[in-house]
Design brief:
With 187 residues, this protein is an alpha/beta fold. The chain is built from six helices and eight strands; from the N terminus they run βββαβαβαβαβααβ. The chain has two domains: 33 residues, no CATH class; 141 residues, Rossmann fold, CATH 3.40.50.620.
Length: 187
């Protein structure tokens, strides 16, 4: 069968399959076509426990419900230590404690915010957020990344850079950025 997509948004929202003799076959709704063409089996959701990342989780749950996807919530612990000859610190112990704490917070987030609405698993990595996010997305064969934007000021953005922008640049899959409702678009 040859498939011609005839989507007329004013009258109907469907596609029609034609066989080789141009005989009408099966009509498919736009929603079904989208589900078939956008196959998001695994969605990565980076979580830093900020309001914007929790909003991204809500959107990811909606996507998971709509597309039958599973969610992978990732928290990246970025531990920056500037040493001193006067201070001693067991870095391995501190990183382990930070990771355990992040795992508990992620599990709590899954229980409170997702519950049984979607299949979800969690993962905690230690490192640079943008690198870990793009690395996990590739390693776990994620089909989509849904990430919250913090909406930092222009000066802070210039000085610190943007994890979201780096993820967009380096990700192997599509990235959906969720902006907080209060974030205004520049004029």
């Amino acid at each position: 069968m040859n498939k011609w997509n005839e989507i007329n948004t004013e009258e109907t929202s469907a596609t029609t399959d034609y066989d080789e003799d141009n005989q009408i076959g099966v009509q498919t709704s736009t929603e079904q076509l989208l589900k078939e063409s956008m196959n998001f089996r695994q969605i990565l959701v980076p979580v830093d426990f900020s309001p914007s990342s929790k909003l991204a989780v809500e959107h990811a749950v909606s996507f998971a419900q709509h597309f039958g996807s599973s969610l992978l919530l990732l928290n990246v612990v970025e531990f920056n230590f500037v040493g001193s000859e006067f201070a001693t610190l067991d870095i391995v112990h501190v990183e382990k404690d930070l990771k355990i704490n992040a795992e508990k917070m992620l599990e709590s987030l899954v229980n409170e915010q997702i519950g049984s609405r979607a299949r979800a698993s969690t993962l905690v990595h230690i490192g640079r957020p943008y690198f870990e996010i793009t690395d996990v997305a590739a390693d776990k064969k994620c089909d989509l990344i849904i990430i919250g934007s913090h909406g930092h000021s222009a000066l802070r953005h210039i000085l610190l850079g943007s994890t979201v922008e780096r993820v967009i640049r380096h990700a192997h899959c599509p990235v959906l950025v969720i902006r907080p409702p209060s974030e205004k678009t520049p004029d």
